Amino acid sequence: MITEAASEDSWGNRIVSFFTVGEFTQLFSRQNMLALLIFAFMTGFAARKAGDKGQPFRVFIASGYEVMKELLLLIMKLAPIGLGAYFAYQVATLGPQLFGFYAKPLGLYYVAGIVYFFVFFSLYAFMADGQNGIRSFWKNAVYPTLTALSTCSSFATMPANLQAASKIGIPNSIANLVIPIGTTLHKNGSSMSSIIKIYVAFLIIGKDFFDPANLLLALGITVFVSIVAGGIPNGGYIGEMLMISVYKLPQEAIPAVMIIGTLVDPLATVLNAVGDIVAAMFVNRFVKV
């Protein structure tokens, strides 16, 4: 009984720690990403609600965003050097074991992703418009697919998606609503990659990924990460940091998770972006305008 109570208390404290911090300064720790996101959302909502009186603050936030974006771009120009050095060190110390370590989750992701891309997207297109839906989808999905592969950006693929939707015959009133929303919220590729990243992180720290509590938490994180992951290239880094903070993973797991995220990003973007087209087809199947 004492053990169960302690376990429940520990789990309850863990849930509370996901959303709250003891001190304001702790918001800016990588271990409290979820609390920071909630604080940022509430601050943005309050700034909009303040109306004209909040205009100076909104200008300040917008200006700060531009400054931090430029700072991040400067850092990211050097980031590949550091990441490459880390990977070189791993190769030198672990050798062939490293490739086996990354090859298994990568192979699993790419096999599952490619099967999902061809089989399930065809199924969704068939459910939307029968055989004609399959033909029209694959006839017009080539350009968005190549765009997603080359840019690794859902936002950059959105114009190609809108063009493909128009050729398929989806009304603009549906395509112009579903595809932009899907670009932000419909992240099936990111959801799949999130599970792989969590699995890799658990391998590194030697924890049991298949524990029921860890699996349920992983599913919850995956849904949330698929929303917060940006449409920009490698925007999933925010989600990765959130995942690491929720699981309280050590810093050693960060580079490995980022490497996996970079390697799966092309296919993840394809699933994220091109999936918006079949989503629009599906909506068009049930909503007539």
Descriptive account of the structure:
With 289 residues, the protein is an all-alpha fold. It folds into two domains: 2-81, no CATH class; 95-289, Proton glutamate symport protein (Orthogonal Bundle). Helix content is 83%, strand content 0%. The chain is built from eleven helices and no strands. It has helices spanning 2-19, 33-49, 55-94, 96-140, 142-151, 154-168, 172-185, 188-205, 212-228, 237-247, 253-286. Mean pLDDT is 80; it is low at 1-9. It holds the Pfam family SDF. One of its GO terms (cellular component) is plasma membrane. It is found in: Cell membrane.
Provide the fold topology.
Elements: H1 2-19, H2 33-49, H3 55-94, H4 96-140, H5 142-151, H6 154-168, H7 172-185, H8 188-205, H9 212-228, H10 237-247, H11 253-286
Helix pairs in contact: 4-6, 4-8, 4-11, 5-6, 5-11, 6-7, 6-11, 7-11, 8-9, 8-10, 8-11, 9-10, 10-11
Shape: globular
CATH topology of the largest domain, by name, is: Proton glutamate symport protein
Indicate the CATH architecture of the largest domain.
Orthogonal Bundle
Q: What is the CATH class designation of the largest domain? A: Mainly Alpha
- Structural class call reads mainly alpha
Output the helix-strand order.
Answer: HHHHHHHHHHH
Mean pLDDT: 80
Give Rg in angstroms.
Answer: 21 Å
Number of helical elements: 11
Uncertain stretches: 1-9
Name the CATH superfamily assignment of the largest domain.
Sodium:dicarboxylate symporter
Straight-line N-to-C gap = 60 Å
Protein name: Aerobic C4-dicarboxylate transport protein
GO molecular function, one term: symporter activity
Pfam families: SDF (PF00375)
Membrane topology: Multi-pass membrane protein
